[in-house]
Amino acid sequence: MIGKNFLEMVEKNSGKVYGFKLDHNFGFGFAEVYDFTDVSNFSGRLIFVYNLIADDLNANLSIDEISKSGIALGPITLWKFPNSRGKGAWKLIGKMDHFLIDIYPPAKDVRANPFLYNNWSKFDRWFIDSEVNDPLEYVPYEQVRRMETRVLNPKEGVAKKFTMKHIIDTGLNVSDYYDLSDLGNRNMYVDLVNTYYPDDQVEVLVRNLPILVPRSAK
Predict the structure, then answer these.
(1) pLDDT digit string (tens) for 43-70?
(2) Domain boundaries in the chain?
(3) Main-chain phi, psi angles of 50, to 5 degrees
(4) Which of 64, 82, 106, 122 could cross-link with 130 by S-S, CB 3.0 to 4.6 Å?
């Protein structure tokens, strides 16, 4: 049996909002972090990215304005929390007085390498990775589409993923800004489109991507 506080977050470290620079001079985004390291020291650092993009990080934006823009991405699992000082620092904007989540969220997982297909709905072995999900039960991809995985992301990866989403949403081509033959860029793009876009749009967005061939099949 799971204890009452088993899935609860560390409140003093949660709800902090940071400003960060998007790639390719697309402006500045805003993200909110959550600390569930008492649940999992490996995958307990989470981040949401807001829809708002500002031209100037020093603009007089309130926490309320950022919050009202809605969530664009997340909860993404972080490798470590953003630094607000030193190289590559993100700007600490403030701390929310209300939380987006207060228990450790579920994630999606699959009994395969998800990057073997560009369209993840082709897999039939998706399941919900949850501290309270037992026994394991396979579900249709649509049931888990909007969930993130537990893959660890550096803060630079979060900025890249949000930049890719902004490029797609403004009708531009991600391949004009990122080399999608690079495995890291390709996998991030495949993850992004399969999580945040419907199946018919995924088919269009991955149409010209190569299929990942396992080494054993070469």
Answers:
(1) 999 999 999 999 988 777 889 999 999 9
(2) 11-217
(3) -85, 160
(4) 106
